[in-house]
Amino acid sequence: MTKILVLIVGLAIIGFILWWFFGKHAVASADATVTDHQQSVDIEVSGGYSPENIVLKQGVPAVLNFTRKDASSCLDHVVFSDFGINQALPQNQAEPIQIDTSKPGEYEWACGMDMFHGKLIIK
Amino acid sequence: MTITKRFWISLIFSLPMLANMILMPFGWMLPGGDWTQLALTTVIMLVATGPFVQSAWASFKKHHANMDTLVAIGTATAYLYSIYAMATQQPVFFESAAFVTTFVLLGQVFEERMRNNASNAVEKLVNLQAKDAEVLRGDEFVKIPLAEVELNDVVRVKPGQKVPVDGVIVKGSSTLDESMVTGESMPVEKSVDDAVIGSTMNSTGTFLFKANKVGDQTMLSQIVDLVKKAQNSHAPIQKLTDKVSDVFVPVVLILAILTFLTWYVFLDASIARALIFAVSVVVIACPCALGLATPTALMVGTGRGAKMGILIKNGEVLEAVNDVKTVVFDKTGTITVGKPQVTDIVGDQQQVLQIAASLEESSEHPLATAILARAKAAAITALPVDDFKAIEGKGVSATIDGQTGFVGNTKLLTTAKLSDDLEQQAVKLQNEAKTVVVVGVADEIIGLIAIQDMPKSTSKAAIAALKSRGLKTVMLTGDNQRVAQAVADQVGIDDVIADVLPGDKAEQVQALQATGKVAFVGDGINDAPALTTADVGIAMGSGTDIAIDAGGIVLVKNDLRDVDRALALSKKTFNRIKLNLFWAFIYNILGIPVAAGIFFAIGLTLSPELAGLAMAFSSLSVVTSSVLLNKAKITSKVQAA
């Protein structure tokens, strides 16, 4: 009897994992705050990036401030492969990263191990 | 707290439990028994495992899962079950939670070091820069920081000093060691009008030079920029791992649950035993090894290339090199020295040379330079010309003394025809690998000029090396068939495509692509379209900025043998990526079933501790394998020239 119960619970957990990780879920997205010829976004790094999608205006110099709250070595670097940026992120310290916004398009960024991703849209 | 600190704390608190495990058969037990184990493990869980749990929870909330999720779930399950087991008087396995944490952290400590090691090539390049420069201000030299050097400043470099920026020598001469930028190991002699490269080392003499590139325009800055981009680029092969890593962790969690259910529900194992198998599955799975396989190898490979004066632009190029079947070379400046010299003049020496020199004075063609140099040596002055016209790929024409004069190849000839005698002479000269230009006035041919561009001394060895790799070599040139064939025979090239107009080079490359991937080696502005069209564009050193932009691989040195080295390095790096990926996949594919207890029947099982150790070392071994690429022998088939 217990075994049947355990089996049901186990299958339920599998169902939950499938729904939680593979189901459609909304992602945090943000536009940059634009002040006098400068735009910036604060990004918190903790179990991923929040916000995960960022929209920047073309032609306005942009700074992304990454603050790593997470101790995981997975997230200790942030890589923008299109811009040749591979920046170490010291824990609990805002790390500004300049982004060249001259070309519009969609750019991805990722952690050093390519496990976590974020998207940058310049338009 | 740093990873290193967490590792030490976790190690120190694990040691008593390790002693307990080893000495148990000899009758020694940890004083305090389960209670001591609980205390020790609790400290480890709070201090060392805590951050894994935090990170796992933070990503869980974002519908993500990572490495930390696996470690956190694995250790927490072992820990919590042990507390339950203790309360119900059953055997505990606290040490699993403790050891797994210690091993995972140990792996991460090493891995962090290795990763720094892999990425330090750029740092080393940046550190090559001089800190300050002696610049002429007013009429004396003052020492100023590097950043304040401006364009056209006159800079003094003394023996033993570094050249601060790029420029051209205006006074003095010296020997320079350029190995740090170009990879050229031999010192290079430089005197007035020679270009010097920033960050290279002056050895013997003192000289003054005029800065023509400063700040981020210098060659070193451009190289640093290029290497940075290359090191962080994506290789197409990564798309596979991207897909896998997206689903990896949840799939492993599901497998772990299935493992538990199978053992407990269907095979009647005890809860403890079923849990140990499930925890082992969670702990042995290592998505990190997959994630690290490509970027670390790419980083080391491109960094090593930079040291050899071979700049590989990105992972895509690296991958494309592997399938290259044909290497196409531009002739002038690539296979040959690129400094043609007049060897023979047929007809009235004085007259032929004067007409040719007058016409060529406004031309930028390399052959024009040769004619003008010869005219200068013979003290012949040019006549004034009007209506100068350059006809691309054919020659030039202009009006001299009211008559139309022309210099060019036979394609230029419309009405005038070569006499049989001249025709024969031209053929003879062409068979000697000399380019023949026809000089004429008013529709009448007055003579021929033969110009020769010697092959570089290294070309033959370089081509032989490529051929021994099984590659087909092709030469593309605007010269006529006979000259081209003669040069090709000298250096051992398989095929010659002659009489190609500069604008048609790209088309020729495209035609060759029908039989497989093509690499194009060239330098000039003319070559930019061909460099872009080819699957792999290799831009030779001393090339223009445009060619460097168009090329996928840039050779800093003007040495054709580097083509083979670049191919060897790319192949080596790509093979290392494949090896890493293979290892990372096979590790997970074999490790997970073993941990799940599939081979229980033949006595092959893994405890969670061993699973943790295996996981730590799988990602470590991938990174180590990448770093070892720095030491790997690049087997170039180039014979010492």
UniProtKB/TrEMBL annotation, chain A:
InterPro entries: Cupredoxin, EfeO_Cupredoxin. Pfam families: Cupredoxin_1. Residues 16-122 form the EfeO-type cupredoxin-like domain. It comes from the Bacteria. Coiled coil: none annotated. This is Cupredoxin domain-containing protein. It comes from Lactiplantibacillus songbeiensis.
From TrEMBL, chain B:
It is a multi-pass membrane protein. Residues 128-228 form the P-type ATPase A domain. It comes from the Bacteria. The keyword tRNA processing does not apply. It comes from Lactiplantibacillus songbeiensis. It is found in: Cell membrane; Endomembrane system. The chain crosses the membrane at residues 7-29, 35-57, 69-87, 93-110, 247-266, 272-298, 581-604, 610-629. Keywords: ATP-binding, Cell membrane, Copper, Copper transport, Ion transport, Membrane, Metal-binding, Nucleotide-binding, Translocase, Transmembrane, Transmembrane helix, Transport. It is an enzyme of class 7 (translocase). Belongs to the cation transport ATPase (P-type) (TC 3.A.3) family. Type IB subfamily. This is P-type Cu(+) transporter. It catalyses: Cu(+)(in) + ATP + H2O = Cu(+)(out) + ADP + phosphate + H(+). InterPro entries: ATPase_P-typ_cyto_dom_N, ATPase_P-typ_P_site, ATPase_P-typ_TM_dom_sf, ATPase_P-typ_transduc_dom_A_sf, ATPase_P-type_domA, HAD-like_sf, HAD_sf, P-typ_ATPase_IB. PROSITE patterns: ATPASE_E1_E2 (PS00154), COF_2 (PS01229). Coiled coil: none annotated. Its EC number is 7.2.2.8.
